[in-house]
Amino acid sequence: xxxxxxxxxxxxxxxxxxxxxxxxxxxxxxxxxxxxxxxxxxxxxxxxxxxxxxxxxxxxxxxxxxxxxxxxxxxxxxxxxxxxxxxxxxxxxxxxxxxxxxxxxxxxxxxxxxxxxxxxxxxxxxxxxxxxxxxxxxxxxxxxxxxxxxxxxxxxxxxxxxxxxxxxxxxxxxxxxxxxxxxxxxxxxxxxxxxxxxxxxxxxxxxxxxxxxxxxxxxxxxxxxxxxxxxxxxxxxxxxxxxxxx
Length: 246
Description:
alpha/beta, globular
C-alpha cells in the first residue's frame, strides 16, 4: 500500500509511535523514526527485528537547530518525504492551581512547538513531490476538557487550529494535513501513571466499552497516509471508541 513512500515519525519509540512504525513498515514504507534517545530507538529496532527499511535519528524536536539537523539527516536517506506523522507527546497530570509556567511551557514545547518545528523542517522535502501527508496526533481530551491537563489540552487545541490553517496553505502542493485524536490509550506510560479507577472510568465512557490500545489508532493513520484519502484534509478524526462525538 505504501511501497516507495518515505515516512518521518516523531515520538516513534513511544506507545502509539512504535505501533505506527511497525504498521508503516508492514505497509511497505521506509520509516525514519525520530525519538529523544538512542536507547529508546535501539529498543524500537529490536522490536522490528532490525527492519531494513527503518532508519533512526535521536534528536530533540523542541529545538530549532535539532529540527534542522533532523531534516538534514532525512535528506541523506531520501530526496523526498511523503508522510510526516507528528506523534511525539507528553502529558503528565497537574492541577491548574499548582501548575507553574515552566510546566506549562514544557508541555507546549513538546506537543505544539515540536509540531511547528518539524513541519517547518520537513515541508521543503515534501512539497515538490506532488504528494504529501501531514498527520498530527491530537487528543479527544480537547473535546472533553479533561481536568488536571489544562496545558496538554490547550496544546492539542493548538494542534487542531494549526492543522486546519496549514491544510489551506499546502493543498496547492497536493499535500493534505489532518489530525487524529485518540482517547486515553493504554501505553506503558499511561499504565504506569494512571490509576485503575481512572482507566476504568474512561472505559465506561466509551460506546465500545473496552480499553484503547496503540494498535487501535494505526489503521486510521494508515488510511490518511494512503492515496485513498486524497480528498480528506483539514479534518480531525476522533478515534476513541465513541467516547466523544465531534
